[in-house]
Write the structure tokens for this entry.
Amino acid sequence: MSKKKAVSAYASAERHTVRAGDRVIEFEFVRGGVRNLNVRIRADGSVRVSAPFDMPFAEVERFVAEKAGWIAAHSAERKAGGGYSYAAAGSVPVLGEKRPLRVEKTKEGTRAYVRESGDGSLTVYAPDAEAADRAVSAWLLRLAGKKLPEIFRRAEDSLRGEFGAPVRLTVRYMRSRWGSCTAAKREIRLNAALVTAPPECVEYVCLHELAHLKARGHGKDFYRVLGRICPDHRELKKRLNACALGRLT
């Protein structure tokens, strides 16, 4: 197939439906720009399937049918979560600040990436809004791995060794909580999505998890400790839940 025809082929999308038992999977299908068969669930729950030019469509249908359960579950999850599009919002929340975001469209199949300007604004180079959102999410995850430990260590240092030796810290994306603590192993985990919250709210989560080193659970003893080391914890919790993104993608 000539290069000219290839560009035309993957530029247009087709709508298809595959039935697998009692499930009906509707998806957008495109050819080109990929080496392997890919299934992508967008933030709004819609499904996009891309395949190499030379892959028979019957093979695509078989693959979608085999993955019907996974596709349906993840599609429903995205629809329930409402999704969030950085590209549509035109900004990215970073430690409590709205960073302006500009999207520069690139050719289909090219790798999306984010570039930060000296003034803090961001430009994402991507073939479409979905790829732009994924690139921004990956950028935020990398930033969380750098910035959240810095905030945590400052919070830990503010306690002046009261809770013992430094704990082992892990930053990772979590779906249902801002942080967690395994006191017996002195391990604390922070949700990478905290990188979208103001620093003082992140510090509150850090102190909350550190308080669990002295008091497990969320009883009176725990809140006595937390109230002493973080007097504004109730207000900070409200601000955190109101302004931070619960999910990065």
Notes: The helical segments are 3-11, 57-66, 68-81, 86-89, 129-158, 199-211, 220-229, 233-243. Residues 1-11 have pLDDT under 50 and may be disordered. The first strand starts at residue 14 and ends at 20. The CA atoms of residues 158 and 164 lie 12 Å apart.
